[in-house]
Amino acid sequence: MNQHFEPKGLPVLVGSLPLSDHTEAADLIWTYTPEIPSWPQLPVFRNERMVHQFLQGLPGLEDNGSRVTVNTEKEAFNEELLQFYEEYLGVTEGSADLLTSRFSLSHKNAGGFFSFQKGIESRISSVDAIKGQITGPVTAGTALKKNNGEILFYDDQLLDAMVKLLSLKARWQTRILARFGRPVMIFIDEPGMAGFGSSEFISISREQVRQSLQAVIEGIRAEGGLAGIHVCANTDWSLILDIPFDIINFDAYAYFDRFILYADQIRRFIQAGGIIAYGIVPTLNVEDIQRESLKSLLVSFKEKMDRIADLGFEPEQIIRQALITPSCGAGALSLDLALKVLNLTRSLSDGLKIR
Questions:
Q1: Closest to 84 in 3D by CA, of 166, 177, 173
Q2: What does the alpha-carbon distance between residue 337 and residue 330 come to, in Å, rounded to a whole number?
């Protein structure tokens, strides 16, 4: 568990913004969250949507313009799979360079990552930590299908390849961002965890989820990064809290009452130095965004912190180990609403007055 970075209630963003210019998006991030900037994802570009963005390099991947699938029946699939594992072993055993491998991000799929880096050097004095993000294996594995319609998570061989791909892409990202000499946190985005335990995914076990996420955590930590998870819906919080994340980011606006039910596990997580990133600023319902104000969110947040304090913590410790975030990305919002979300996130953090 992390013992070297105290966020002290600083604000950080989830990732996506409703813009079509990466430089403009990066400028907004630097304006509102200069202490913990994150690189922007712009879902207006198809290649930057959650499942597309991090799957380049997966054997059998095909994009026909309307959907992405994995074609295991094409003649070259077995050769692609062999090449994938050869490159994976080369990187992990040290005979191949991670930075130039298929496990790197590309300008085509992650333009915001490269635009963001251009502004770091001139602003580094304001930076306490740097945040990146990657699609999680449960979300990618249940959203992506083989050409026969079967979801990828049910194919043991493809699941193994996808988890290895995501693990090394997270490791690549951590290594690049660590060059700037600040703590690096990588959030594993797992909205698909909302479906865990449902009838649709009933055959996905807790152990499969744990092993898949653990592999990505290990990729991040191999480069000294902090591993976080972002879940913007309700899920099995006992499972999330049982996996050794450094940071847990959840929709505290809508699901705090569900989360706090796991009091003993939350207590252990905080006692071990874990960081809770409270998604207290709503993004998923337009009426909520329009209705809420800084005053109302400060009242709501204080009530929630009182319930965390009831677990046996002083308010100062809770805030020292807290981040303030939107409940989810802002990429599906209008620009006006997205700007309100960013402003509320910044202002709520400033309103805590503990730094």
A1: 166
A2: 8
Kindly give, in sequence order, each residue whose CB lies less than 8 Å from that of residue 1, ignoring residues fewer than 6 positions away. 244, 246, 272, 273, 274
Q: What is the reported pTM?
A: 0.96
Q: What are phi and psi of 222, to 5 degrees?
A: -60, -25
Contact of 244 with 211, CB cutoff 8 Å: no
C-alpha–C-alpha distance, residues 170 and 186, integer Å: 7
pLDDT bucket at 199, cuts 50 / 70 / 90: low
Taken in order 54, 57, 58, 64, the sign of the CA dihedral is positive
- Residue 156: pLDDT band by 50, 70, 90 thresholds? very high
Under 8 Å CB-to-CB from 271, ≥6 apart: which residues?
none
Q: How far is CA 276 from CA 228, 236, 269, 314, 322, in A?
A: 9, 16, 9, 15, 5
CA 97 remoteness from chain centre: 25
Which residue bears the tokens 């997966």? 58
Q: Which of 353, 341, 348 is nearest to 28 (CA)?
A: 341
CA pair distance 317, 333, nearest whole angstrom = 34
Q: Which two tokens stand for residue 2?
A: 């992390």
Treating both helix axes as pointing N-terminal to C-terminal, what angle do 206-221 and 156-178 enclose, rounded to 10 degrees? 30
Residues whose CB falls within 8 Å of the CB of residue 14, separated by 6 or more in sequence, listed in order: 38, 133, 187, 189, 230, 232, 249, 279, 283, 325, 326, 328, 329, 330
Structure tokens belonging to residue 76: 């070259």
Strands 68-70 and 61-63, sheet pairing: antiparallel
- Using one digit for the tens of pLDDT, what is the confidence trace for 322-345? 999 999 999 999 999 999 999 999
Distances (CA, A) of 165 to 110, 118, 168, 266, 306: 16, 26, 5, 31, 41
What letter does residue 327 receive in the DSSP assignment? S
